[in-house]
Specification:
With 61 residues, this protein is of the alpha+beta class. 13% of the residues lie in helices and 13% in strands. The protein has 1 helix and 4 strands, in the order H-E-E-E-E.
Length: 61
């Protein structure tokens, strides 16, 4: 059975774990509608993507 030869130091362990943290989702303000949306995603409220109409706009209730 494989057994570690030496104890892993706190610095080495924490350096390895530094990339495991979850990042908060990024949102940008849409230039046309002013709504918040994810970058590189369709604006569902207007149906626009990169200046083109891709989807039918959602009806407001």
């Amino acid at each position: 059975m494989a057994v570690p030869r030496k104890k892993v130091s706190r610095a080495k362990r924490n350096t390895r774990r530094a990339h495991d943290a979850l990042k908060r989702a990024t949102y940008i303000e849409d230039q046309d509608s002013g709504e918040l949306r994810r970058p590189h995603h369709i604006d569902l409220k207007t149906g626009m993507y990169r200046g083109r109409q891709v989807l039918e706009p959602k009806d407001e209730f």
